[in-house]
Amino acid sequence: MIKFCNSCGAAVAYRIPEGDSLERAVCAACGHIQYQNPKIVVGCLPVYGDRILMCKRAIEPRYGLWTLPAGFMENHESAPEGAAREAMEEANARVEIEYLYTVYSIPHISQVYMMFRARLLDPDVSPGVESLEVKLVAEAEIPWDQLAFAMVKRTLEHFLADRRAGVFVPRFGDIRPPQR
Amino acid sequence: MIKFCNSCGAAVAYRIPEGDSLERAVCAACGHIQYQNPKIVVGCLPVYGDRILMCKRAIEPRYGLWTLPAGFMENHESAPEGAAREAMEEANARVEIEYLYTVYSIPHISQVYMMFRARLLDPDVSPGVESLEVKLVAEAEIPWDQLAFAMVKRTLEHFLADRRAGVFVPRFGDIRPPQR
Question: Which of A80, A159, B55, B56 gets the most CB atoms within 10 Å of its CB?
Answer without folding.
Answer: B55
